[in-house]
Amino acid sequence: MNPNMKNHRNQTQVSIIIPTYNESQNILKILKSIGENLLPNVSTEAIVIDDNSPDGTGKIVEDYVTNVKKIANYTIDVIHRTAKKGLSSAILKGVQYAKGDTIIVMDSDFSHPPQIIPRLLDALKKYQCDIVVASRYVKGGNIHGWPLKRKLMSKLATVIAKKGLGVRTSDPMSGFFAFNRAVIKGLKFDAIGYKMLLEILVKTKGTTIKEIPYTFTDRKFGSSKVSTSTVIDYIKSVWKLYRYDKSLQKEEKRSSVRFLSKAGRFYTVGASGLGINYLISFLFASGSSDLWYLHANMIGIVVSMTTNFILNKIWTFKDKDFSTKNTLEQYGKFVGFSSLGALIQLSLVFSLVEIHQITYPLALMLAVFTAAFSNFILNKKWTFKEKLWG
């Protein structure tokens, strides 16, 4: 712990939370850059939460704090955790430890430029809002250095959050944001996955939010933390947040709203299936199995059909009849209707790749979206035996 920190905690107004894992090549540079971009007359603390990095990130910060000459109104502290417990829980730990009335969350790899910190703080003050999000997707925002696959995954996750959870920001998946500490007072966090902002947005309805544009630049040093487990954690998080949101709402009696609500849930499930379909297809086509892309696409379709059926039965249509006969009959119908879309999907993938020379990832995305068009009505009417309207 920084020995100078105790003397300045009462003065601290801004706390910057920086979770780390194997960031030895970036951490000192980011801490120095933060110090160079502080607002005048604003006392600031940077809190590094390190998940026992094998490359010694936490120790590097500790040594730096001990030996470096202190900058006025700027303190640095490090929290050592004993294992890799996840990004959201690290942020939550930092927030619990922080003393500032204003909290900023950011990464340590320069994908979140410290030069944006003054703009976040200025926006909080100027617009008198509760949360300011540094957004890649508002006018003026951008992403540099991401491959098409990563951009599509980000867009998909954003669509699921906006449509499925009703969040109002253009970039609910941003990891770079500022908020007034009072906003989260009394909230209980699940801290699943890597996007704390999404949980805050869902659990703080009615808060005022401002977005400012920034350019996300992919890291130069170290490796990305996004993996298959990240995708799984995101799906778990969305499911928990959806259930949380619904538990706060009364049963809707208007048939039009019920219809749109079920359609929204159906397409949220479809969006999750799209992600599963894409990832499975992509992994089998480009991994060690080295399957032909159409064979890989077939595997992705089968897996996503099965997960979509289970989620739609439980969540969208809330069908509680799990008898073997009924479930198998429903699954057969669901697969049958989905297969119509699958035939369209395969035909489109083949046509776009072989005839129109479109890259496979983009062709796959276009084909899956097209194939999903009629599935909701067909399954609502004949698989789950509901009235079309209501």
3D architecture notes:
This protein is an alpha/beta fold and 390 residues long. The protein has two domains: 9-217, Spore Coat Polysaccharide Biosynthesis Protein SpsA, Chain A (Alpha-Beta Complex), CATH 3.90.550; 250-383, no CATH class. The chain has twelve helices and nine strands. The strands form two sheets. Strands 3-2-1-4-7-5-8 form a seven-stranded mixed β-sheet. The chain has a two-stranded parallel sheet with strand order 6-9. The radius of gyration is 23 Å and the shape is elongated.
Tags for this model:
alpha/beta, 2 domains, seven-stranded mixed sheet, 390 residues, two-stranded parallel sheet, Spore Coat Polysaccharide Biosynthesis Protein SpsA, Chain A
